[in-house]
Amino acid sequence: MNCRHCRQPLRLPLIDLGSAPPSNAYLDERTLHIPERWFPLRVLVCEVCWLAQTEDFAQADQLFAADYAYFSSFSTTWLQHAETYVAAMIERFSLNAASHVVEVAANDGYLLQYVKAGGIPCLGIEPTASTAAAAWEKGISIVADFFGVRLARKLAEQGRQADLAIANNVLAHVPDINDFVAGFALLLKPMGVATFEFPHLLRLVADNQFDTIYHEHFSYLSLTAITRIFQRNGLAVFDVEELPTHGGSLRVFAQRQDIGAHVPSIRVAELLADEAAAGVSTSGYYAGFQDRADQVKNDLLIFLIEAKRAGRKVAAYGAAAKGNTLLNYAGVRPDLLPWVMDRNPAKQGKFLPGSLAFPSWPKPVCMKKTGCGTDFALESEGRGYGATELYSGMWWTVRYGHSPFENLAVKFGEYFMSEVVERVDRLEESIQEFVLNVGIEFNKLYNSQMRTEAELRVFKDEMKEFKDEMKEFKDEMKEFKDEMKEFKDEMKEFKDEMKEFKNEMGGFKDEVSDFKTNHAKPIGR
Q1: Which end of the chain has a smaller Cβ tally under 10 Å, C or N?
Q2: Calpha distance 79→318 (Å, rounded)
């Protein structure tokens, strides 16, 4: 395989996580018994431009299907992050009602809703029908397409260039990174700015965050690699910020290379120096990452097996793609982890890809809706437990965070389990029934609505096209009727001429008859 950016051969391995299905390809009752598509999950590093990247196996249309299940708005912390970002960008770049903001990978409108609320015209680009439908519900205009040079050129020709172009957590998701970045050089107005957010490779390696590796992430990015990729494709980095999101991310500010209106910040040179000092541009930096990931995998399996032998019930909180990476890498199946709780309706009532653990309603919601466990909930709140701990009151919970084993619920210990095991046994059957009867039905209704909304928009577009064709047809019919009227008038005139001709012929015949009578002589015998 050759590098996606510079096309040089790839030989340096970072990690091999075996094989797994796409991490957001959740299953339902219909697809549960259909064989899943599994792809190898290996990451290599280019020793020329230092772009870390997955091997080519899965295509984008296999990863971002119409029923894509990741909805950004179900994360309250991510909504807060988006709202803070929008406020900062409006102030920094003096955005107003005369500006135009475009977000690539707008998802369900989680961010552009704040741009719209600020009275700033905006446009979202989102290829997945399920999330695009949710954005339309918020009143946000969406172009349902994949972004690249083709679409950017089309938007520019339509006069829809951007003062601010946003690409949060999508740069790592594109297979053709050169085409994607070059599209922003076309999308931006001369003084426009593009911002990109993505997990920082430096943090991934330093903190053993192998859970951020899955098929949807084609690239794992450092500022060193990004600077080179941008320069080749018409953009220039002028600022960078380090963020705590997703275990440590970068926010990169870029402008058109041919304009260069913004003065580069010292932070760019400082972070490039930090990466160089860490060894990002050396082969040795990536050695040992596989061994550290293997250790986490082994520790998780030991914990789950020991918990099962001790009669504990284990569930996970949050049916995230990161968790799917860990579970499939470790080979965890429903015998060790039968339940995963998630507040996202698009995931409730479904099954995790590969591991087949069953995501349901969050337990606090179940308690409120069924009245079960109310005494324990109050008791837990009195002890100062947070949402995850309250949740753990009925299940022995593994809370999987940004870094493997970061938030494992082992800390609650045997004392905590002894208080709740009796309630678990009593409530398990009723809560499972509630999840199946309510959670699944809600999920079906939600997905049905999303599909209906998407189909309705397609139908509306087809109807508009049909109406335009009918108008054109009516115009043609009117023109035809006018021609027919003109033809009828000509025919009438022709008939009158024919009648006059017949009269003349009648007179001619009379003259011939008279002539024959008066002048013809009999022929002698």
Answers
A1: C
A2: 17
Task: Assess contact for 348 and 439: CB atoms under 8 A.
Answer: yes
DSSP state of 221: B
Return the residue matching tokens 């082992």: 410
Beta partners for residue 255, in sequence order: 193, 236
Q: Is 465 exposed, middle or buried (0-12, 13-18, 19+ CB in 10 A)?
A: exposed
What are the residues facing 15 on neighbouring strands?
43
Task: Report the largest interatomic distance among the alpha carbons of the chain, rounded to a whole angstrom.
Answer: 151
Cβ neighbour number for residue 257 with a 10 Å cutoff: 14
Name the packing angle between helices 266-278 and 223-232 (round to 10°).
120
Residue 254 three-state SS: strand
Tokens of 396: 């022995």
CA within 13 Å, CB half, 348: 26
**CA-derived radius of gyration, the chain:** 35
For 406, the token pair is: 């970061």
Beta bridge partners of 42: 16
Is residue 177 pLDDT above 60, yes or no?
Answer: yes
For residues 175 and 186, give the distance between their C-alpha atoms in angstroms, rounded to a whole number. Answer: 19
* CA contacts within 13 A on the Cβ side of 495: 6
pLDDT tens digits along 242-263: 998 888 999 999 999 998 889 9
User: What is d(CA 369, CA 15) in angstroms, rounded to the nearest whole number?
Assistant: 44
Task: Determine if the pTM surpasses 0.90.
Answer: no
Nearest to 201 by CA among 325, 46, 72: 46
Q: Cβ distance 203 to 396 under 8 Å? A: no
The whole-angstrom separation of Cα 251 and Cα 233 is 18
Cβ-Cβ contacts under 8 Å for 216 (sequence gap 6 or more): 22, 23, 24, 63, 64, 173, 321
How is residue 63 written in tokens?
């990863």
Instruction: Express each pLDDT in 179-229 by its tens digit.
Output: 999 999 999 999 999 999 999 999 999 999 998 898 888 999 999 999 999
What whole-number distance in Å separates Cα of residue 98 and Cα of residue 515? Answer: 96
